[in-house]
């Protein structure tokens, strides 16, 4: 399994018991969805390794307490400390309406209410305080904030994200 076929679920942040249990911080608004997983991929080096889960439960709402079948001691738990957890993309819950996963809209056209086609989504920059679409049109790059006010409709069937860009933004990049 390649990382490109998976989504980042979270990270192992601490040991929980001397029997090898760990706590994982999940990167989700709905951690309860992942409470009864059978397995997860653990990133060790550059390799995703499947780990089978003996039992798991939510701990203090956003942490998942996990007992892996293969991890039976503190020393074995130390070997996976800080490791990222991944699941196959097919396990992501389906989103509808104007909610979308960043990977889902790659290659979609950006259609602005005033300017029409303003480019194709090439990526999403979510390392800043405000996530941004990275789009390209005629060799020029356009950065557009991802907000509920700007994204007006996600048309999955036709691969178009309809937007109302802030006044002057499109001219700044494409003008």
Polypeptide structure, described:
Keywords: Chaperone, Cytoplasm, Ribosome biogenesis, rRNA processing. Residues 103-169 form the Ribosome maturation factor RimM PRC barrel domain. Binds ribosomal protein uS19. One of its GO terms (molecular function) is ribosome binding. The protein is mainly beta. It is built from 2 helices and 12 strands. It is elongated. The protein starts with 5 loop residues before the first strand and ends with a helix.
Average the pLDDT over all residues and give the rounded result. 92
* Uncertain stretches: none
Strand proportion: over 45%
Write down the secondary-structure element order: EEEEEHEEEEEEEH
The whole-angstrom Rg is 20 Å
Q: How many beta-strand segments?
A: 12
Quaternary structure state of the chains depicted: single chain
Secondary structure: helix percent: under 10%
Question: Can you count the helices?
Answer: 2
General form: elongated
Biggest sheet character: 6 strands, antiparallel, barrel
Structural category = mainly beta
Alpha-carbon distance between the termini? 43 Å
Strand order of the largest sheet: 1-2-5-4-3-6
Domain Ribosome maturation factor RimM PRC barrel: 103-169
Main location: cytoplasm
GO molecular function: ribosome binding
GO cellular component, one term: cytoplasm
């Amino acid at each position: 399994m390649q990382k490109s076929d998976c989504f980042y679920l979270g990270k192992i942040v601490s040991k929980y018991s001397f029997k090898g249990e760990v706590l994982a911080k999940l990167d989700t608004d709905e951690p309860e969805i992942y409470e009864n997983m059978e397995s997860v991929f653990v990133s060790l080096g550059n390799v995703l390794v499947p780990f089978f889960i003996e039992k798991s439960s939510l701990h203090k709402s956003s942490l998942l307490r996990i007992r892996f079948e293969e991890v039976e001691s503190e020393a074995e738990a130390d070997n996976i400390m800080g490791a990222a957890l991944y699941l196959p993309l097919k396990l992501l819950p389906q989103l509808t309406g104007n909610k979308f996963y960043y990977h889902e809209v790659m290659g979609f056209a950006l259609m602005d209410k005033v300017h029409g086609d303003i480019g194709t989504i090439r990526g999403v920059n979510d390392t800043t305080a405000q996530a941004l679409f990275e789009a390209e049109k005629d060799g020029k790059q356009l950065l557009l904030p991802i907000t509920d006010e700007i994204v007006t409709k996600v048309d999955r069937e036709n691969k178009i994200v309809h937007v109302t860009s802030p006044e002057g933004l499109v001219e700044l990049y494409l003008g």
